[in-house]
């Protein structure tokens, strides 16, 4: 059933009767955030936001306008203002509005139980995280953050061709950030869990895995510099690969390729990674970015960025697709007040059937990296170079050995994906990371130590 917001947007478009193509993007969201500390609720917040952006194509020009006061009068004003703004924009043949008259409502990413959960239940979950963490081990000395949050949103894309698509979605998440000390050393631990349904959150698991993360890092040692076989944990591989693949500067985005900001220019159809590597974006997988259609109304679909090591797909919105003479892949991204860009939904590195433990046996004498820092400052998205502070463990006797600290790992993204010898089976989509990867074993990387 179409929402009242969708009916309002449809009516505004119908009433304007532009000869030019026009589009409205509407979004609204509500967010709850709760923090427990020292057995009490330290903070509670609830916020609602909404807004609407209009785009009008006038010949080879496109004008934009937005409002945060969503009513019939302001929608009409926004459309008129967007049309006026178009007259000041230089000509560009890439501007386009999606030519579709489909009407559809989606709710497959909407929680089944979140609307039934009371504020008191949410507060109790945050309190339980802190309680379980402190009870886990006497060396857990502080839990600065025991957090519960949830988000519900509605998104509408409608245009003068008759398109009107609506999606309602919701999600919840919780995490623990804590400190451990044995009197000689101090370390921190973290664990995050995100779900569609509140009932699937597990405060005990969150607390205990965060505690284990901190405890195992105590009394870490320094190691010599050198070239080492490296296994990146699933969370660290996700962060590192995601920084290159699912970011504004992604080499896989058509607009970046067109502007000379990608080393993948001219390499479509070529082998760019190890032949067993498949990188896929599947919008049907529930994650922070899951969606049924993009922010221009184009249906979202599964895309292979890399298939069997071969660069298979450039990702496009309508603008970059038109400039390249191809169809949009349904990866357009915008907010009501922000310009068009490109996005991924639920991208991941396809796992194998190997357990992470089996990789340790293959990388004897190497390093198992569980934390990296400096992902924003320590990498170059165009060249692919990275140099990151890291922590982890030595791999000894085919197992995770003693903890190590104060190392820097350096390499190049394009070399790394060619030198991934093996991947494990342990992807995690419920950590709501920008990219999901299993643990990966890389032949060798430069490590700076003591």
What's the total count of β strands?
Answer: 19
Mean pLDDT: 96
Helix content: 10-25%
Could you tell me the radius of gyration in angstroms?
24 Å
Q: Name the assembly state.
A: single chain
Could you characterize what this model shows?
This is PmbA protein. Belongs to the peptidase U62 family. It holds the Pfam family PmbA_TldD_2nd. One of its GO terms (biological process) is proteolysis. The chain is an alpha+beta fold. The chain has two domains: 4-215, PmbA/TldD superfamily (PmbA/TldD fold); 220-450, no CATH class. It contains nine helices and 19 strands. The protein has helices at 4-16, 72-86, 119-136, 203-215, 234-245, 254-258, 318-324, 356-362, 413-418; strands spanning 21-37, 40-58, 61-67, 103-106, 140-159, 164-181, 186-195, 226-232, 279-281, 303-307, 310-311, 332-333, 341-342, 347-349, 367-373, 385-396, 399-412, 420-423, 440-448. Strands 1, 2, 3, 4, 5, 6 and 7 form a seven-stranded mixed beta sheet that branches. A hairpin with a 7-residue loop joins strand 12 (332-333) and strand 13. It is globular, with a radius of gyration of 24 Å.
What structural keywords apply?
21% helix, single chain, PmbA/TldD fold, alpha+beta, TldD/PmbA_sf, metallopeptidase activity, seven-stranded mixed sheet, PmbA protein, Metalloprtase-TldD/E_cen_dom, 2 domains, Metalloprtase-TldD/E_N, five-stranded mixed β-barrel, 450 residues
SSE topology sketch:
Elements (H helix, E strand, L loop, with lengths): L3 H13 L4 E17 L2 E19 L2 E7 L4 H15 L16 E4 L12 H18 L3 E20 L4 E18 L4 E10 L7 H13 L10 E7 L1 H12 L8 H5 L20 E3 L21 E5 L2 E2 L6 H7 L7 E2 L7 E2 L4 E3 L6 H7 L4 E7 L11 E12 L2 E14 H6 L1 E4 L16 E9 L2
Helix pairs in contact: 1-2, 3-4
Pfam families: PmbA_TldD_1st, PmbA_TldD_2nd, PmbA_TldD_3rd
Family: Belongs to the peptidase U62 family.
Organism: Spirochaeta isovalerica
């Amino acid at each position: 059933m179409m929402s009242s917001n969708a009916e309002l947007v449809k009516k505004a478009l119908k009433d304007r009767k532009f000869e030019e193509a026009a589009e409205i993007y509407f979004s609204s969201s509500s967010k709850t955030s709760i923090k427990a500390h020292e057995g009490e609720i330290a903070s509670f917040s609830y916020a609602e936001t909404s807004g609407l952006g209009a785009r009008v194509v006038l010949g080879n020009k496109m004008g934009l306008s937005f409002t945060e006061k969503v009513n019939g009068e302001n929608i009409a004003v926004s459309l008129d203002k967007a049309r006026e703004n178009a007259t000041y924009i230089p000509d560009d043949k890439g501007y386009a509005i999606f030519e579709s008259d489909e009407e559809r409502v989606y709710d497959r990413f909407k929680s089944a139980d979140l609307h039934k959960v009371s504020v008191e239940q949410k507060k109790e979950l945050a309190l339980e995280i802190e309680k379980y963490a402190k009870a886990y081990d006497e060396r857990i000395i502080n839990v600065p953050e025991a957090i519960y949050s949830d988000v519900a949103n509605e998104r509408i894309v409608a245009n003068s061709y008759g398109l009107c698509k609506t999606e309602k979605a919701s999600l919840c998440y919780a995490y623990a950030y804590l400190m451990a000390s044995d009197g000689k050393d101090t370390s921190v631990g973290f664990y995050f869990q995100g779900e569609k349904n509140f009932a699937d959150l597990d405060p005990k698991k969150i607390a205990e895995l965060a505690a284990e993360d901190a405890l195992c890092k105590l009394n870490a040692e320094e190691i010599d510099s050198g070239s080492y076989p490296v296994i990146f944990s699933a969370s660290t591989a996700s962060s590192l690969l995601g920084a290159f693949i699912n970011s504004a500067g992604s080499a896989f985005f058509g607009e970046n390729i067109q502007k000379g900001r990608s080393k993948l220019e001219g390499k479509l159809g070529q082998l760019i990674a190890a032949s067993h590597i498949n990188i896929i974006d599947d919008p049907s997988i529930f994650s922070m970015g899951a969606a049924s259609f993009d922010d221009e109304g184009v249906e979202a679909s599964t895309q292979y960025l890399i298939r069997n090591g071969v660069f298979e797909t450039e990702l496009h919105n309508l603008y970059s697709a038109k400039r390249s003479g191809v169809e949009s892949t349904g990866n357009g991204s915008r907010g009501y007040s922000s310009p068009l860009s490109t996005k991924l939904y639920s991208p991941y590195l396809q796992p194998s059937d190997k357990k992470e433990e089996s990789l340790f046996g293959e990388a004897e004498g190497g390093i198992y990296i569980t934390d990296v820092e400096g992902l924003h400052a320590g990498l170059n998205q165009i060249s692919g170079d990275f140099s990151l502070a890291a922590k982890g463990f030595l791999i000894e006797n085919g197992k995770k050995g003693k903890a190590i600290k104060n190392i820097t790992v350096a390499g190049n993204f394009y070399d790394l994906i060619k030198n991934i010898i093996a991947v494990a089976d342990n992807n995690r989509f419920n950590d709501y990371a920008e990219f999901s990867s299993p643990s990966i074993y890389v032949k060798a990387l430069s490590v700076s130590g003591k």
